[in-house]
Automatic annotation (TrEMBL), chain B:
Name the UniProt record assigns to this protein: ABC transporter
Annotated GO MF terms: ABC-type transporter activity
One of the record's GO cellular component terms: ATP-binding cassette (ABC) transporter complex
Source taxonomy: Bacteria, Bacillati, Actinomycetota, Actinomycetes, Kitasatosporales
Organism domain of life: Bacteria
UniProt domain ABC-2 type transporter transmembrane: residue ranges: 52-235
Location in the cell: Membrane
Short name of one Pfam family: ABC2_membrane_3
Membrane topology: Multi-pass membrane protein
InterPro entries in UniProt: ABC2_TM (IPR013525), ABC_2_transport (IPR000412), Nod_factor_ABC_transporter (IPR051784)
Major location (coarse): membrane
Sequence intervals crossing the membrane: 18-35, 50-69, 98-121, 133-158, 165-184, 221-239
């Protein structure tokens, strides 16, 4: 009994993916710049960043499609290639091409056959929601359908880690929701899921951990809630009459940003309760007071702007 | 690995346009070149009649066409589309990919050889012993694998618009210098010295030896084996290190 607990604990703290000071440059541009991170079993992790942040390069390094200039990348304690050969990794690339002139079923069957811990092709197609297009030629699929086929290829076997590079590109809203529902099933089976996205609401809604990548470096690492808090979690807006004393407003506690335009004041605060309390303490009478949560998108913009301000 | 080979074979057979072209084209070329010659015209130094000589040349040339043209462009396209990257995320070893591509090319090259033989026998009354027909088919077919592997390698070296011209240069260069169109004996000495080391020269010599009721020369076989290892190994290596992005 005691032994089992120890084993379970070891498994829970083991590193699924480890990046240690990884750098990858293209010419003068450092796509990945001294990146260090660790993913743990069972986590659903979003890799978030604008285009050019280094997301795809990071995933390519993780999957062994590219090799780091310096630093080490390990997957389940081995090289990415060894982990793939062992069938521990399933991956879906951004706009990854598909073999043409074959049917969806033929392609999924191929992926299943190639996987050391294969599932039945029929089951894989059912889970990916592509059973009804099984006989269709791969080159005759819509963008969303092709993404589902790619997802089927990534989940053709019992992999411990699923890597998805911007998986919902080309999907409409309902297809996207259906897709994430499918993907949650994968996560619920105890797999580690890592996905890159610039759809910030996806990271917010799906991931239990968010890594914010900017210029190849890790800007933030935490839950979506923590990321929001880091950037100034709440937006407070109100109107004031008469001359507005900006100096007094700037002295409010927990402020991260103040914007006054006309009689309207917009404030970002990491502790809205305390800020509002102090606002009344200034002896002003704010009208139309609104306190709203910042979406992850604004949080993200705030973090990157702060980082850019620091650099320049 | 077997499932990829099976699927590649099915794909090759479904591509009817390419199949039709690569199967008929060498036969038509044979009829044009051997058209006026009768069974008594001898090809200098070989002791073979022109139709017999050209039959083997065109069967070899046709097989070369089928495997080289089919593979290189297709693979370059598959790399650009990103399919090869996706495939590299599976445990499939590099040699599996090269093998599958080579096998699918071989399916197309076999009928092109047989059709040239049939046309030569029916129209130009080429007569050989039964063992010669069988040995020729086997030798030319097996030899074509060397160029199938070369096609895979070219598909990996070149991208986009460059694939077709590069394939053409390699294809015509190897065919002409190797003596597939005309006997290499008509070349100047220095060119013959170079041509002797080409895989196409060894390839053509294989068939000619059988036609002359001889066993193929060990040197030719060895040369082909070395080239096959070189092309296939190079292709597998390129598959593994390919970093082309979709």
């Amino acid at each position: 009994m005691g032994d089992m607990t120890t084993t379970a604990e070891t498994a829970a703290t083991a590193t699924v993916v480890g990046f240690d000071q990884v750098t990858k440059a293209y010419g003068d541009v450092r796509a990945v710049d001294g990146l260090t991170l660790a993913l743990h079993p069972g986590e659903t992790v979003a890799l978030l960043g604008p285009n050019g942040a280094g997301k795809s390069t990071t995933l390519d390094l993780l999957l062994g499609l590219k090799h780091a200039d310096s630093g080490t990348v390990s997957v389940f304690g081995t090289s990415p290639r060894e982990a793939i050969v062992a069938g521990r990794v399933g991956a879906m690339l951004q706009s990854g091409g598909l073999m043409e002139e074959v049917t969806v079923a033929e392609l999924v069957r191929l992926a299943c056959d190639l996987h050391p811990r294969r599932y039945k092709a029929a089951d894989v197609m059912a889970r990916a929601g592509i059973s009804q297009i099984a006989d269709r030629k791969v080159n005759k699929l819509s963008g969303g359908q092709a993404q589902r086929v790619r997802f089927a290829l990534a989940t053709a076997g019992d992999s411990d880690l699923i890597v998805l590079d911007e998986p919902t590109t080309g999907m409409d809203v309902s297809a996207r929701q259906a897709f994430w529902a499918t993907m949650r099933e994968q996560a619920d089976q105890g797999r580690t899921v890592l996905f890159a996205t610039h759809y910030l609401e996806e990271a917010d809604a799906i991931a239990d951990r968010v890594l914010v990548l900017h210029r190849g470096r890790l800007l933030a690492d935490g839950t979506a809630a923590e990321i929001k808090a880091k950037a100034g979690a709440r937006r407070i807006s109100f109107d004031l009459e008469g001359v507005i004393d900006e100096t007094a407003l700037n002295g409010l506690p927990f402020l991260t940003a103040v914007d006054v335009s006309g009689q309207t004041v917009r404030i970002q605060s990491s502790d809205a309760d305390a800020t509002v309390h102090a606002l009344y303490g200034l002896g002003v009478y704010p009208r139309n007071l609104e306190v709203a949560g910042l979406g992850l998108e604004q949080a993200f913009v705030a973090i990157t702007e702060a980082e850019e301000a620091k650099q320049s | 690995m077997n499932s990829l080979i099976k699927l590649e074979l099915a794909r090759a057979l479904r591509n009817r346009k390419f199949l039709f072209f690569s199967v008929l084209y060498p036969s038509i070329l044979f009829l044009i070149i051997a058209g006026k010659a009768d069974g008594t015209t001898e090809v200098g130094g070989s002791g073979l009649t022109l139709p017999t000589y050209m039959m083997v040349s065109m069967a070899s040339f046709g097989a070369l066409t089928a495997v080289l043209m089919g593979n290189s462009e297709r693979i370059a396209k598959e790399r650009e589309s990103g399919w090869v990257r996706q495939l590299r995320l599976t445990p499939l070893p590099g040699r599996g990919y090269v093998l599958a591509k080579t096998a699918s090319a071989a399916v197309v090259s076999l009928p092109s050889i047989v059709v040239v033989f049939a046309v030569a026998a029916a129209v130009k009354h080429v007569r050989l012993d039964a063992w010669q027909w069988l040995a020729l088919t086997g030798a030319i077919w097996a030899g074509s694998l060397v160029f199938a592997a070369l096609g895979v390698a070219i598909g990996y070296l070149a991208t986009g618009d460059a694939v077709r011209p590069i394939t053409m240069i390699v294809y015509f260069g190897l065919s002409m210098l190797g003596g597939l169109w005309m006997p290499a004996t008509s070349f100047p000495r220095w060119l013959q010295d170079i041509a002797e080391w080409l895989p196409t020269h060894a390839y053509a010599a294989l068939g000619q030896a059988i036609e002359q009721s001889q066993a193929p020369h060990g040197r030719d076989i060895a040369l082909l084996v070395v080239f096959f290892a070189l092309f296939a190994g190079g292709a597998a290596w390129l598959y593994r290190k390919d970093t082309l992005k979709a």
